[in-house]
Design a protein that fits this description.
By secondary structure, the protein is α/β, with parallel strands linked by helices. The protein has 2 domains: 8-74 and 101-173 and 284-363, FAD/NAD(P)-binding domain (3-Layer(bba) Sandwich), CATH 3.50.50; 175-283, D-Amino Acid Oxidase, Chain A, domain 2 (2-Layer Sandwich), CATH 3.30.9.30. It has 13 helices and 17 strands. It has helices at residues 15-26, 56-63, 66-72, 107-116, 189-192, 194-200, 236-239, 247-257, 263-270, 301-304, 313-330, 334-363, 370-382, and strands at residues 8-11, 32-34, 48-50, 80-83, 89-93, 104-106, 123-124, 129-136, 139-144, 149-152, 154-157, 175-186, 204-209, 212-218, 224-231, 277-283, 296-298. It has a 7-stranded mixed beta sheet with strand order 5-4-13-14-15-12-16, sandwiched between helices. Strand 4 (80-83) and strand 5 form a beta hairpin. Its cofactor is FAD. Its EC number is 1.14.13.-. NADPH binds at residue 43.
Length: 383
């Protein structure tokens, strides 16, 4: 017999898992969040996110953190610039009058906003899920790497691309998309690199050509993140005999890869602060679904990992978390709540993942930036 107050575990403290936890707690439902990181600040949280009105912002309203979000967000970050490899500006998009805003917020700041909203004792840092064992009636024993075991009525896999929960629901595994990003960054860019600051502007700049791209994204506090994007092996550096720790060798290799591009664009590779990070892009099959399984479900990248060209990854994860929490609050029966959530989330995520795949194909194409330009112009006409 299901207890009156279900024992709920969320595995993973990304935007989706934390949103779910916050909304559950607002409805008086206790939850515990487990994350493998030793602390909230154990590693960098990546770049900036645009919070979409019909997904991320909708989820944030359910958290009750709108005011805190607005204090941290950057409305000017919605600007988008598309260039070709010569540096020619093909399109510059800023929000039209009357268009719903999608302000930017740094991933780290969003995470801290959500973490600080949770009840004391919600987070369990340094907990890597080793195994999950079904023990009947939808309950599962979760064993963590320190050896301790807890029992839950619902385990929510919010643990990203390489989810430990997903294998109990699906045989699907992420596949390499054929595209790799190599990340670098500039600090104090307005003072130290004003030409780069002018090139990138207040939001995102993409320069695309011939299966390659340079993407730069404004973050808060004068920081810009840069991504060199290209098709090829995810092990491209090792295959060239390079160590990713050898900053200058990697820099030289990337500059060689982008030979012939405009010098102002090459400054993104030549003059950054160094410390290159290899980020091969992975995705789950589209559509990705699973038979309903009592006591388990997924959200965010664990459910629908896609490449970043949808612009929807974190937004969808947060909407998943909000929808799941509201379903659990609105149904007396745990399984009915999860079924209702999955019936909404699965088709929605399939549509977004299809869009992400098209976006990647357009951006990293032999005739780029043609496809991306066409897509952005269509979006402008709709507004």
């Amino acid at each position: 017999m299901q207890p009156t107050t279900p024992r709920i575990a969320i595995i993973g403290a990304g935007p989706g898992g934390l949103t779910c936890a916050r909304v559950l707690q607002r409805h008086g439902i206790p939850v515990t969040v487990f994350d493998r990181d030793a602390s909230a600040d154990a590693r960098p949280r990546g770049g900036t996110l645009d919070m979409q009105p019909d997904s991320g912002q909708l989820a944030l309203r359910e958290t009750g953190l709108d005011e805190g979000f607005r204090a941290l967000a950057r409305p000017e970050g919605q600007e988008m610039r598309l260039l070709d490899h010569t540096g020619a500006l093909l399109l510059q998009r800023t929000p039209a009058a009357g268009e719903e805003p999608s302000p930017e917020i740094d991933r780290g700041e969003l995470r801290r906003l959500l973490l600080d909203s949770l009840a004391p004792g919600t987070m369990r840092w340094g907990h890597y899920l080793r195994t999950l064992h079904p023990i009947g009636d939808g309950t599962h024993e979760a064993e963590f790497d320190d050896g301790h075991i807890e029992t839950f009525d619902l385990v929510i896999g919010a643990d990203g691309a390489w989810s430990r929960v997903r294998p109990l629901l699906s045989d699907a595994t992420p596949h390499y998309s054929g595209v790799t990003f190599v990340e670098a960054g500039f600090g104090d860019v307005d003072t130290r690199h004003p030409a780069v600051a002018r090139l990138v502007g207040d939001g995102t700049m993409m320069a695309l050509f011939g299966n390659k791209g340079l993407i730069a994204q404004r973050n808060s506090r004068g920081r810009i993140l840069v991504y060199a994007a290209f098709r090829g092996s995810q092990d491209w550096a090792a295959e060239r005999g390079l160590s990713l720790d050898d900053t200058e060798a990697v820099r030289t290799a990337l500059l060689d890869m982008f030979t012939g591009w405009d010098a102002h664009l090459l400054a993104l590779l030549r003059d950054n602060d160094g410390g290159f990070v290899n980020r091969p892009l992975f995705a789950l099959p589209v559509p990705h679904a699973w038979p309903h399984t009592p006591g388990l479900t997924l959200l965010g990248d664990a459910a629908h990992l896609m490449t970043p060209f949808s612009g929807m990854g974190a937004n969808l994860a947060m909407l998943d978390g909000s929808d799941l929490a509201r379903a659990l609050a609105g149904h007396a029966d745990l399984e009915a709540a999860v079924r209702a959530y999955e019936a909404t989330m699965l088709p929605r995520s399939a549509k977004a993942a299809e869009g992400a795949a098209r976006g990647l194909d357009n951006a990293l194409a032999h005739d780029a930036p043609r496809g991306t330009l066409h897509h952005l112009r269509r979006r402008l006409r709709r507004h």
